[in-house]
Write a structure and sequence with these properties.
Helices cover 37% and strands 21% of the residues. It contains twelve helices and 16 strands. β11, α5 and β12 form a beta-alpha-beta unit. The mean pLDDT is 94.
Length: 372
């Protein structure tokens, strides 16, 4: 089987290895266990490798490079208008040779792929929609268009579209799904955390405006100003790093706010195991892996009510749902910080729920999708 992946994820080379964003590649390596050949069509750039990169694990990979494109400003739109026909026909050419078409959505490449796949109604297809599928959410027009095309049983045939969460009034194309980081064999006893002494908060994710790391810092600032013994470490890199550094220095937060950079999966496991709370005040998510990972190791998640996150948190039963209002949110957190019994209850519920979603289960479900 020639398994085609159409993705916007930027790839690079590390010697002879093809590498890309680790959470994406780790997931794709599971899909690739069940195929003879993989063709990847995506942008390729010379960028420095870091712990957030991972290599594909397959002996028969064909990579088709296409230029990256965007519609963020007039110059980029003008440039993209010339690139789109070339990229589109590259995708169509790859689809002709493929036995199974797999789209990574939402994204610019996913948009072109969702249009190109219309011409191949008889080929089996899957799409992973890693964004927010909530029909009521406000999203870019291109995302909304992708959702319409993928949902249509007329335009999109023989397709399983994997989405996060269960939503009403969906077509037969749409399949509620999940993602996973750990195996059944990873399950081990979680050591209880006392709320006496210093409380350790973490933020895990890109330091971008959409993830709102500044709000995570402000929450901990608020708790500190109320006399609580707290600290927060932020794991990740991004465009907001300079702004965050400036905020930390300007407000003299160096003693309890720390920017740690990117850590690999094993390092993050130790971080989760030694932290009390994860704060993820993101504006948009699909299925945030960091939330499920934190829960797996007994680190209580605090997150905004986006996509399927409220369901992941049991609507407050196994986490804290933020309102994005500083004073009410800091009060919610402080109430849990001062109630060891309630904290322990939520931790127990979080661990039990998250450990239903392992790589073993994920792999079995992926195998069914490819072999159907």
């Amino acid at each position: 089987m020639n398994f085609l992946i159409v993705t916007h994820v930027v790839h690079t080379r590390n010697g002879a290895d093809l590498v890309a964003y680790a959470p994406y590649v780790n997931e794709m390596n599971i899909w690739l266990k069940f195929v003879d050949k993989v063709t990847i069509i995506a942008p390729l750039k010379n960028i420095e490798n870091n712990p957030i990169h991972q290599k594909y694990q397959h002996s028969n990979i064909q990579f088709i490079e296409v230029p990256s494109f965007s519609f963020v400003n007039g110059k980029e739109i003008f440039k993209s208008l010339f690139l789109l026909p070339y990229i589109f026909f590259k995708i169509v050419g790859a689809m002709i040779q493929a036995h199974h078409i797999h789209l990574r959505c939402p994204g610019n490449m996913g948009l072109l792929g969702s249009l190109a796949q219309i011409f191949f109604p008889r080929k089996p297809k899957t799409a992973k929609y890693a964004g927010n599928w909530d029909p009521k959410s406000k999203q870019p027009l291109s995302y909304t268009f992708q959702k319409l095309v993928l949902s249509s049983t007329f335009l999109t045939q023989k397709m399983s579209v994997l989405v996060y969460g269960e939503w009403p009034n969906q077509t037969r194309n749409i399949k509620p799904f999940f993602t996973a980081t750990y195996f059944e064999s990873d399950k081990s006893t979680v050591q209880p955390r006392s709320l006496e002494g210093k409380i350790h908060f973490i933020f895990v994710g890109s330091l971008s405006e959409g993830k709102q790391p500044i709000y995570a810092i402000q929450l901990v600032e608020s708790l500190k100003n109320k006399g609580q013994n707290v600290q927060i470490s932020l794991y990740g890199e991004g465009k907001q790093q300079a702004n965050l550094n400036e905020h930390i220095q300007k407000n003299k937060l160096e003693n309890y706010v720390f920017l740690k950079g990117n850590f690999d999966r094993e390092q993050m496991k130790e971080v989760y195991q030694s932290s009390h709370f994860l704060i993820l005040p993101s504006k948009s998510e699909g299925w945030p892996k960091v939330v499920a990972e934190a829960m797996f190791w007994g680190c209580l998640p605090i997150s905004t009510a986006v996509s399927c996150v409220p369901n992941m948190l049991g609507f407050g039963e196994r986490g804290i749902v933020l309102t994005n209002q500083l004073e009410p949110d800091s009060k919610l957190i402080e109430e849990i910080m001062t109630n060891q019994e309630e904290y322990n209850h939520k931790i127990k519920e979080a661990i039990n729920w998250s450990r239903n979603f392992t790589i073993d289960k994920f792999e079995a479900e992926i195998k069914k999708l490819i072999q159907q």
